Amino acid sequence: MKPRILPNQSPEPGNANSQQPRKNTLFWRLFANYFLLILIPVIVASVLAQVLVVSIIEKDAERFNQVMMNRFSEQTDKELQALKTSMINILSTSRLRSVLLTPMASSPDSQLLPELLHSLREQLQQLESDDLVEKAYYYFVHQDLMIDAETYTNKAYYFQSRYPLDLNRRHQLESELSGKKMMDFMQSSTSLTASISYPFNTASPEVYLLVEVKSDKLEEQIHMPERWVTGTAIMDESANVIAQHGLKPYDQLVLQQRIRTDGFSSGFTISDKTGLSFMPSGFNESWHYISMIDVGTLMKPVYMTRWICWLFLLFFLVVGALTSYYLSRRLYLPIREIKDGLKLHHVPKGEAGHEGNEFDLIKRYSQFIMTENKELFQMVNGMLPVMQEQFLTKILLGQYRDALSIEFYAKEIEFAYIHKAARTVLCISFHYDRSFYDAASESSKTFLLTALKDKIHRLAPGMVWICQTRPDLMACIVEHGHITEVKGYPEKLAEQIRNILLEYSPYYKATIGIGRTVHVVEELHYSYDHACAMLTYRGLLSPVEICGSQPSRELQQWDSFLAVQEVQRIVNQYKTREYDKLLQSVLALLEEGKTKDASAVQMKYLLADVLNTWIRAVESERNELNVPYYSSLFERMNRCMTWDELTQCFEDIHGFLFRKPASTSRSQQFSEVVKYIHEHYDQELSIEHFAGMLNMSIGHFSRTFKEEVGEKYVEYIAKYRLMKAKHLLLETNMKIDDVAEKVGYWGRNSLIRAFRRYEGITPAKYRNLHQ
Length: 771
Fold this sequence. Notes:
- It is a single chain.
- The protein is an alpha+beta fold.
- The radius of gyration is 47 Å and the shape is flat.
- It starts with 15 loop residues before the first helix and ends with a helix.
C-alpha cells in the first residue's frame, strides 16, 4: 500500500538525482541574471570602446596636437609681430628723414647732431631689451655711417671692431640690403637678421634698421614639451630651416626631402612611425611651423585602452561564472531551510500540494505573509505625532471651526480629546540671537526646540498640547478643568515656562502671551488670536516677559513719528556738528520711555524714525548710500529686547555714522610714501599710484614731494636704487643682469644708463674700482 501524502507535505528528495538538477538550475538562473544585468552592459561598453572610444582617442590626439601647434605658433607670431611693431615705431619716431637723411656735410662725424645721436642710441637700447633681440643697429646706404646702442662710426671700423664680419659675409650682407624691406629676414650659418628699410614706401631706401634675433630664444618659443613630440621647426617655402628644436641632422634632411617632394600639406599626416603636423605662419606667409611626432608614443594610450577593454570583459566573465557557481552551492541549503520554515505557516487556499521551484515557492509564501500583515505595516508609520501637531495648528489658525469636522479628523489620526473642557492658549514668541541663529545648523535649532517642548510637557503631563504655528511662534494649549475654570492656573504655568525659557536666554529671548479661556475645542482660535494680541504689550525690562490676558501695561498714546520741529532740530545739530547732542536726545527718549514703561513696539516705531532721520542727514553730505548696511542697522535695532540693548545699539550706530575722520599731517603722509619706497624699491613705483592714494594731481604730488623730501620723486627713487645696487655689486658676486632685476630695473641696459648718469661710469667699472 502506497503512503498517503498530506496536503501540507511535499515529496522528499530521496536521492541526489533530484537535487542536482535544481542546483544546476539555480546556477544557470544566477548566471543568466548576471549576464543580463552586468555582462551585457560590459560587452556593449567594450564594443563601444573598440569602435568609438579608440577612434575618439585618435582624433583627440590629432586635435590636441593641433591645439599645441596653434598655441606655440600664435605665441611666436605674437613675439615676432611685437618686434616688428617696435622696429616700425622706432623708425617712425627717429626723425631720420628730417635730420640725418638731409644732406648737411660731407663728414658725418662733424655734422651729426649729438642730441639726435643720443636719442637714436637710446631707442636702440630700448629695442635690445626685448627678449628676442641680440643686437640692433642702423645701416646707412648712401653714407659711411653705422649706429648701434653704444656708439656711431664708419662702416669699415664697425665691421672690423664693433661687429666683426669677414669680407664675404659683409659683401653678402650689403648685397642683400637693397630695395624695400618690411621685416625681411636674412639668414646665415650663425645668425638670423631682421631688416626694415626707411623711408618705408620707397624702392630706394636710405637707412636699414637691422636686428640680430637670438636663436636660443626663438627655439624656446617653438619648443613643445610633450613626450610624443620629437622636434619642432620653422621652415620657409624653400625648405630652409629658420629655427629648430630637438631635430637631429638626419631628421632635418628627411624633413627637407619630404617637403621638397610633397610640399606643405595642411593638417596632420602620418607615415610609418613618424607623424608630421604643418601649420602656416600668420606672421610670414612663406613660413610654416612643423612638429615631428613619434606615432608609437602618441598612440600608446589607444593600444592600452584596447587591451584593457578585452581584459575587462574577460575578468567580468570569469568573475560572473565563479560567483554564480559559488552562490548556487551556498544558497541551496539555506533556501531549502527557508522553504521548510515557511511551510509551517498557515497555507493559503489553493497553494496546498503545489511545490515548483524553491524561489517561486518562497516568493509565494512571502507575498502571502505581507498581505496578511498589511494593516500592521500601515499602523507602524511613526507619523502620528507630526500629523497631530499639524491638526492642532489648523484648529488654532481657524481652519477647523465646527465640532463635527474636528471630531472626524481627530478620529482619523487617533487624536483623543475631551470636547468640553476649560482650555487656554499660551503663545511663546521667540526672538533669536542673530549670532547664534546664523551660526547654528538646522539640527541644533531643532534640538533646542525639541528639548524645550519636552520640558514644557513634563510641567503638566497629559494637560498640555504643543504645536508650532510659525517658525518663531509656538502655541501651548493648556487644559485646566472641565467646564469650571481653575483661576490662576494658566498664569502659574506661564511663570514656570518663563523659568525654563530663562535657561535658553543665551540663544534667544521670548515673550509669553496668555489668551482668554475657552470651553470647547472649536473656539481655541479665539484664545490663540487673543494671546497673539497680548504679545504686542511686551516691554523692554526683561529677556523673558509674560503678557497676561489682562495686560498690566496700557499702550500709551504716543506719536509714532517725529514732529517736523524735531526732525529739523536733528538736521541742524548735524550741520553744526553737535554730534553729542544727537546721542543725548536719543538717550533722553529712551529714559522717558523707560519712565513711562512704554511697550517695545511703540518705542521701536519712534526710534526707527530717529534712525531714519540720522541716515538722511548723513547721506545729504556723503552721497554714497549703502542700503545693505543701513538695512542691517534697522535689523539690529528690531532685535533689541531690553532698554540696555537699545542704548548700546544707538551708541554704536552714533559712533559709526558720526565718527570724525582721522587727520594726518602732510609730513606724515609723505613719510609713509618714503617708507613704502624703501620697502618696495624692487617693484614698479608709479607716481600715478601715490598721487591717487593722496588724492592729488601728479603735478601737485611731484611739487609737494620735493618740498617735503628735498629731491624730485624720480631722482629719489633712482638714487635709492643705485645705493642698493652698489651694495650688491660690492658685497655679492651677482651678475649685472641679476643686480638690475633685484633693484627694480627692467634690464642691465637701464642700470648702466642710470650709473653713467649719476656716477659717470658703468657698474662693472664701479665694481672693479671699489673691490
